Amino acid sequence: MSKKKPGTVRIIGGKWRGTRLRVRDLPGLRPSGDRGRETLFNWLQMHLRGAQCADLFAGSGVLGLEAASRGAARVTLLEKSRPAAAEIRESLARLKADQVELIEGDAIAWLAQCEPGSLDIVFMDPPFGEGLETRALELLTARNSVRKGGFVYLETALDAPAPAPGPDWEIAREQVMGDVRMRLLKKN
């Protein structure tokens, strides 16, 4: 069990390893835990260097910042909550994270305009119970935004029906941690 200070989450690997990020207490905001992120980034370690990434429902920004810390070339964080985006902005300034862009806005609207083949890795850890992951995956597929061989990481409540990935995707990895289902989809 990790020692997590109230209101913080830490980057666990790469150049910013050990850096704590402040997390506001906001509805639906539950940053991925250390153990889950350790598993996820072990799955992705061979694919991060130079990757173009997007963290669609950034919350604390920890998934996207972890990717940047471990060598992603470019990371776009999308967060529509103003207070959460303000915390992310402060973290980006403190880290001098020039390869990370914060867009304060709706991830679904951004995806509807996302360029085909522009992403290598997409992180989706949306607020549970709103169906955002299904809509986001549909748009990623329809717009062909993820390059062949790229990945989508999806974190959902264990008791929620997982969105059907469709024929463009295969389930590369899947794991359950507590009440969370972690799924890594690979683009065929």
What does this structure look like?
This protein is α/β, with parallel strands linked by helices. Helix content is 26%, strand content 30%. The protein has helices spanning 34-44, 62-69, 82-95, 107-111, 132-142, and strands at residues 8-10, 20-22, 52-55, 74-79, 100-104, 119-124, 146-157, 169-177, 180-187. A seven-stranded mixed beta sheet has the order 5-4-3-6-7-9-8, with helices on both faces. The chain has a two-stranded antiparallel ribbon with strand order 1-2.
Task: Write a short abstract of this structure.
The protein is of the alpha/beta class and 188 residues long. It has helices at residues 34-44, 62-69, 82-95, 107-111, 132-142; strands spanning 8-10, 20-22, 52-55, 74-79, 100-104, 119-124, 146-157, 169-177, 180-187.
